[in-house]
Amino acid sequence: METIKYYLCGPTVYNYPHIGNLRPAMTFDILVRTKKYLGNNVIFLENITDIDDKIIKKAVEENKSEKEIAMFYEKYFLEQYIAFNMELPSKLIRVTDSLNDMYEYIQNLINVGAAYESQGNIFFDVNKYKNVYGKISGQKIENLLHDDENIFGKKSSLDFALWKSTSEGIKFDSPFGKGRPGWHTECSCFINKYFEGKQIDIHGGGIDLVFPHHENENIQHFALHNENIAKGWLHFGTLNYKNQKMSKSLGNIIYPHTFLEKYDADTYRLLILSTNYSKPINVSDELFESLQSQINKFSLIHNKFQLENYENNINKNIVNEIVNLFANLDFSNALSHLIKLTKTSKDYATFLYIAKILGFNFPNIKISKDDLKKYNNWREYVKNKEYEKADILRNELKEKGII
């Protein structure tokens, strides 16, 4: 059985995420579910950045500690895994739980000559790896240089902090002095520890992380192991609401809890499955309504399957074929094959089986004995031409979304 190693850059917990921020987690959820179904062992790690300049700023604004801010928004973030029926990663790693690992990792980079101390900070020496740096983002190092090389005594403007000496916010004692870790170091440190320095299969994160974050992660790993940190990358497109990127300044953010007030979690999962992971999605109220309508149709198929006692004939060849497409992120093609299975009743069992593998909720909803009895009574009234009684039951069943 093949072991597949995944890592996702998780949230900086200083504010509520919006629904666009959930796209990477939802895509990895689908990826992990399908890979596991196909017989792979999957190790999936995600970090939580619980100390950062943004958290410190929020703590000052609200007159709270950094820990209070981080724990509040981490709790909200993890609640979305439950609300959207996503499986938690194999391991979630908080920065503040991993400081000793980071001290050791930074010291290893110093030991191999990849990092240096200046004014209480530890910087990565990018120019030592100038033939490698830029490969992840397609940047040329000469185009990135600018004239602030001497800030904090850095050798080059491209050198980034592994450890920051700071006068603001929480500070930790370390072998390098008081301060806090640099953002670019945490993920490469965790990958190094939990995957034992081995190259992982896929590293994921938002499209905005390609440079400098993922570039800086990769160069640290390369300095220690002489290979790229990952075989492949998943960089996720944005969710744009009414053709504009969601942002607080524009006031067009949709939070997960407000989304779920109007739509099913399955509606969001279907949205993610409807577009290639790297492409932006322009969402609108009309699109959400259309997707919700599709989920309602899927739910009716599941209800019909239960009410009419269809045979549970699952075509495993078709299952494997479609799940393979999803597992290889060929979402558009896979979804069209899946929807074709809803056209004839002989394929309902196969459709529902795949939908369950993909993490949809609707195949798990059981019709109550009371509603089943009402359905049978309705059919009996129709058969006996007792249309007035039939209409009353029909309206009840329709109101509840049973038929």
TrEMBL record:
Show where the record puts the motif 'HIGH' region. Answer: 11-21
Task: Detail which positions bind Zn(2+).
Answer: 9, 187, 213, 217
> Could you confirm whether the keyword Zinc appears in this record?
yes
The record's InterPro entries line, in alphabetical order, gives: Cys-tRNA-ligase, Cys-tRNA/MSH_ligase, Rossmann-like_a/b/a_fold, tRNA-synt_1_cat_dom, tRNAsynth_Ia_anticodon-bd
**Domain of life (superkingdom):** Bacteria
Which reaction is catalysed here?
tRNA(Cys) + L-cysteine + ATP = L-cysteinyl-tRNA(Cys) + AMP + diphosphate
Supply the enzyme class, top level.
ligase
Mention any Pfam family matching this sequence. tRNA-synt_1e
Enzyme Commission no: 6.1.1.16
Q: Where does ATP bind?
A: 248
Q: State where the protein is found.
A: Cytoplasm
The answer to whether the entry has keyword ATP-binding is yes
Cited NCBIfam families? cysS (TIGR00435)
The UniProt entry's sequence similarity note says: Belongs to the class-I aminoacyl-tRNA synthetase family.
How does the annotation summarize its subunit structure?
Answer: Monomer.
| Protein name, as recorded | Cysteine--tRNA ligase
Organism annotation:
Metamycoplasma equirhinis
